[in-house]
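Section handout, structural biology tutorial.
Before the tutorial, make sure you can parse a SMILES string by hand: atoms, branches in parentheses, ring closures as digits. In the record below the ligand is pyridoxal-5'-phosphate, and the chain has 389 residues. In the tutorial you will relate the predicted structure tokens back to the input. Do not try to memorize them.
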Amino acid sequence: MRYPFLDLADVNRPYMSELKAAAARVIDSGRYIGGEECSRFEASLAAMTGTEFAIGVSNGLDALRLILASYLCMGRLHQGDQIIVPANTYIASILAITSLGLDARLVDPDPVTSNLCGDAVKEALTPQTRAIMTVHLYGRPAIDKQLTDLVREHNLLLIEDNAQAIGAAAHTAGINGSRKTGALGHAAAFSFYPTKNTGALGDAGAVTTSDAELAHTVRALANYGSDIRYHNIFRGFNCRMDPMQAALLNVKLPHVSEENNLRRELAAIYASQINNPLLRLPSDEPGHIYHQYVIHTSRRAELMDYLTANSVGHDIHYPVPAHLQPCYSNRWSAPGQQHATDIEGYLIYDRLPVTEKLAATCLSLPISRSTSPEDAKEIATILNRFEPD
Ligand SMILES: *Cc1c(COP(=O)(O)O)cnc(C)c1O
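Predicted structure of the complex:
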């Protein structure tokens, strides 16, 4: 592939020698759980996010689960409570909710931003709603004034799925200028899965919050429910971040903005140079960090063949929304076959029409260190020549 979608060795190349030194430091230290690398990681993440606490955990899904499980322990959530979540997210957001006996209320996003918006949340609110999980999908901050007003008026919990948006910032009115995602609500989950903008070299995640009780509960739950050694206050899990991943992330955390800016530069090239009327480009905003650069087209199957023929890597985030996955086939009433329409080989059931249409038309272009600015210009030229019969 002349223009690879993503090559993680390219992404980590600028940090290779420091990463190897950090790994060697951990191996030599004889300390393989907890310790100084973990505390340093947590202090850096809290400082860069603007929260009082950060807790390093095993991965992003566990970070979400630990937040919800902690609220259950604290009596802030109860079994069966309803949590509003956008339907067009990576399935992990929804798995976290349903795995804990909570009720995921799936909401269609705004068709232009692909993000949850206050209008849709307002319509979806019921007396059982206790929390909103907003997802900063593709690195775009998913928050607006109406949403934060609803949180306050209805005394809801606002949980951020910040897996795709480390270092993004919200400039929305009513949020006091610019604030980092991860500090916009009551608690946030981060993922350092290797393909994220700042990735570990394995699985890792984190929770941020400025709520001391929540931080204490998350930390205990992630460590067998233990607050002090051999004293278990909760029926917990083992979801800790290990010092190897913490040490590797300590190398990469100082470069979060640099990595995000690199993606913003590539996005700006695409935005200024792609002008094919068959393609809808993502709308920009200042705090967007482009975890993915997602375009939409009703000619996706043809475009994918064309890109492959022109050696341009691409991917789909995500082809099948959670409510149409087999694991949820008896959860959100199986859609009636007779209402299904076929777009490019994907069935649209009209159950969550915006989500289903976005899933059937989205395509992610290369946007990482594997792609140079020159590559991005050439990819734009290739896209502009796309002209199916
Ligand atoms: C990656 C991701 C997660 C899960 O993170 P893992 O570290 O892979 O468990 C959750 N939500 C979203 C939106 C993600 O993109």
